[in-house]
Amino acid sequence: MIATDSTDHSIELARKLIGDKGAITFGGYTTDDDVALRFEALAMDVAVPLSLNLTSDVMVNQSAAFSDFHATGGNPAANASLCDQAFVAPRFVVVQSRRHVLSD
Question: pTM for the whole thing?
Fold first, then answer.
């Protein structure tokens, strides 16, 4: 946990840290749809998979179990992917965002 001054400060700190050092995955929690969209934009900008508001067990490699995208290959901590499209075009990476589906 890192104390921050505001949501804006938290998002910018995450952007800088992931941009500079990298991350294998990024967990975000919010009840504000605008903040959720900002988390998704941040994840796309720094090429890190986003787990948004997950409410059960969260495993770092849960993406790999289903899609082989454990890391995006697009940031310093995730500079390779278990499934890499470099044979098509090495400048493209895959970043995903997932949310729990709410039941009625």
Answer: 0.67
